Amino acid sequence: MEFINNSYFIFVSVALFVMSSLMYIRELLKQQRHYIQIQKVKEMEDKKKRDFISNINHEVRTPVNVISGMLHLLARQDLDEQSMSYVEKIKLANKDIKNVIDNALDFNKLYGGDIDVHNKEINFKSFVDSLREDFCLQAKQKGLKLIFNIDENAPKRINSDEYLLKAICSKLINNAIKFTEEGEVIFKVNLLQANDSVVNLNFEVIDTGIGMDKEQIQAIFKAFEQGDGSKTRTYGGIGIGLFLTEKMLEAMKSKIRIQTTLGQGSSFSFSLVLEYIADDLSDAEICRGKKIMFVDDDLINRQIGQTLLNDLNVNSVILSSGEEALENLNDSFDLLIVDIQMPGINGMEVAEKIKGQGYNDLPIIALTGNSDAADLEKYKRSGMSGCIAKPIDFDVLKGTIADAFKNTNTVSSFKKISKDVLDFDSDVSSFSAAKGLRLINNDKSLFNDILTKFVKNFEDTPNKLKYLSETKDFKSATLIAHSIKGISASIGAVPLSNLAKDVEQKFKISSKADIDEFVKEHKIVIEEIKKYLSNNQIEEAPVEKKEGGVKDLVDLLIELQDNVSRNDPVRSKQILQKINTYSFSVSIKDSLSKLKEFISSYDFVEASKVIEEMRKTLEE
Predict the structure, then answer these.
(1) What are the Cα distances from residue 61, in Å, to 55, 67, 86, 110, 275?
(2) With contact defined as beta carbons under 8 Å apart, do 348 and 322 qualify?
(3) pLDDT digits (tens, 9 = 90+) for 484-509
């Protein structure tokens, strides 16, 4: 009986335990279903919020893009200086709105778990040019130097997520400009390591801005914070740029690094290990052996162009006008480089006429001192393949020519090339020989020759400009100011180039320009150049001469005339040097001096006349 009672008690206890457990489980399941329902509702609400924000942003973006388009068209009009200033200010305000939209969309994606990395091939030069174009106006408006310092060994093509990489770099550059009132902002890319398939690139943005203390550093990576509340009021923004930057870098398996000193500036950097695509041929190899026509109305620019093309091992033909270009064009040419602003037929007219003659596949590159967005669009419409801004930089020349031959007629070929190429040191003197020499591959002999021609051709420029201004010949004054603008930059006289640009703009709108500051700077530059030339004379090595007869001289003159008729300055100069190694029984010193002068100035018509006179005299 006792056994039965115990069994009953155990049975009842187990039954009660099972029942209570089932009830507890049922309650848990009920709570779970309720929680799931709440989560679903919350997720639906969050999705609605994200969709709403996304839709609002897209709706705002549409009119913003319309404004951008209208500003682009407006900038192409012949506006006066004040109107163009208004356009530039509207562009910056419009860009600020787009930045806010982009940040909001990125923030929305982040909380929706939509930040995925999608790697694809990127033209790295195009990528950098795009960043430069996006921020050059913003930096200019604040009076800041925007310098791009890219490792020459960085790969030309990489595999990465272009959207994320550009968003990260843009947010860092934008912040640097925003929080810097004077000085400079530098965007650097250094190659840390490379092997057969991957590279480690370090990206860095350095500014001379307000800097931060330790407390501010801890706050800036939190959403909707900018170090302290006053920053938002003073500098604007919504305080999510660096928060998003950090999250995007995490998605790309990298981290951001900061070095900063309050009141002195900051450095933000990160490293990425990326796959790269090796080029089959280097730019120099692509250019080698090509036949290129170079057209510029200015003697000094022709001399610089011919020397740099010679360094590329190309067969160059140097001409001085659009008329000569059309007259000499034939199927043997691989590429044309033409100055845009020339008397007579200008560069765009040359391009249009050439395309109209059936040379549709001939790459044409614009050579210009005007390379803003409106100008670049005009060059593109006229059938050109790319643009090189003055002063001509050897690496830019090489890369642009190579891109044209590779048929990479992309936006990058028409990107504005800002003058940061000259900002490789802190020298802001009136005349910097180091800058001028850098642009022509440190050819000291050529540099002295260019400086001598600059003094000869431009010493009287202030008087010419004053006269043209008084006689209201603004068109001629504009051409002179435009010419000295590009050439001054080419020899390292950057302040004079900037003043010439201002004078050119004022003459362009047919108003009497104040050239007093230009005249003062011009006088300083001329004096500095004369001083440099007197201290840096290059003595020519003595030439050991050998005896030569009349027949030897005639044969050499025939060869010279053949190259002069083909407008080939390189080969013509080589033959002149060969003639100079002979000692002839007849006196040809005066004639050789004339030949040297005409060939050096690319006046092949007059050079041909001298050769004909020499041959006629010798053959009598």
Answers:
(1) 10, 10, 22, 19, 34
(2) no
(3) 888 888 888 888 888 888 888 888 77
